[in-house]
Amino acid sequence: MALYLNNAATTWPKPDCVPEAMAAFLRTGGANLARGSAASRDLSTLDLVTTCRERVSSLLGGHAGGDPRYVTFTANVTESLNVVLKGLLRPGMRVLTSSMEHNGVVRPLRRLEAEGVRLEVLPCSPEGFLAPRTLEDALREPADLTVLSHGSNVCGALQDLDALAPLCARAKVPLVLDAAQTAGVVPLDAARWDLGALCFTGHKGLMGPQGVGGILWRPDLAERCAPFVEGGTGSFSHEETQPTTLPDKFEAGTPNLPGIAGLAAALEWLAETGVEVVAEREHRLGARLLAGLLAVPGLTLHGPRDGANRLPVFALNLAGWDNGTLALELSDRYGIESRPGLHCSPLAHRTLGTFPQGALRLSPGYFNTPEEMDRTVRALEELAREGR
User: Fold this and answer.
1) CA distance 372 to 388
2) pTM of the prediction?
3) For the chain, where are the E strands, in sequence order?
4) Measured distance CA(177)–CA(165) in Å, rounded
5) Distance CA 223, CA 245 (A)
6) How far apart are the C-alpha atoms of 167 and 377, rounded to whole Å?
7) Which residues fall within 8 angstroms of residue 240, CB to CB, at 6 or more apart?
8) Shortest CA distance to 9 belongs to which of 201, 148, 137?
9) Which stretches of the chain score pLDDT less than 70?
10) Residue 35: what pLDDT?
11) Using one digit for the tens of pLDDT, what is the confidence trace for 114-171?
């Protein structure tokens, strides 16, 4: 029986309501957004999209009293980050980031650096944490933007936003948060942290489908940001330039409406279940797995070695095994699905000391069980004996 431990890539399984909502939209709805005749099907689509915006804003702590206009839908968190970074940064501007970032942050910033943006990568500890003092020192020089991943997709290190965000606020430097690994998994509050933009994806902790993500904006940053894609919006059709009105400004073209239907259902499920309940269950599973991993002979755990300030995302190497071969053995012999390699985060692996070989990643989720954690540890113990 397959044991899925790759939730950091995408959560699986999804709550039943997610595929049901997507199928129902395609079967009985299907109208495009703001491109119909105001018939009941057109109004139903508008209501669906507005409801999903409202649920995003409510769950993630939106600014402006939760105004749904400040939720922009994209295809994924990578697109969200590109919209924000390339819409805001210009040659000569200075941007700060950390050495634990995913390529979704690093690659757009490297492109912008080649075009004249001043990029500073702040070093993190070997466990993956950015020290507040490091950010504070960097902010003594004028900066235009800070962009940080909240939780590491490699080793689970969770940055201390209660300490880091106020530093940016005091320096009047907008903070853009990559919440790919934390939205839906830990409680978030964009307004309390005064985030300039919170970028999210639907298919991970939010329990939705692939192909839909978004941005939760602080209003002033949304006004400053130039649109990334321009075209038809179903509104202001007499104008030949992109509307400046939100949400139209950042949503040219037909959105992924079946994906939004699935995300809306997932967000309702999360609201009913409770993010705190999800977080507690995943923390217990992670703690059980962590304790077992630390006892496996020859196993090296990279990143935080205790249960504090971390997600249930574990990077490891096992003596005598290449991590790619280890992943194949876990899959073929034990039915355990993991992810080896560099996880689209070479900068993070350099910080953790695992570049270029990478690591094997195990990431349990809400629908896993304690027994599955024990089964995984037993499999690794057997393979450890073989590796020796």
Assistant:
1) 25
2) 0.95
3) 3-4, 71-74, 94-98, 118-122, 145-149, 175-178, 197-201, 213-217, 299-302, 314-318, 336-337, 360-362
4) 10
5) 9
6) 41
7) none
8) 201
9) 31-43, 388
10) 53
11) 999 999 999 999 999 999 999 999 999 999 999 999 999 999 999 999 999 999 999 9
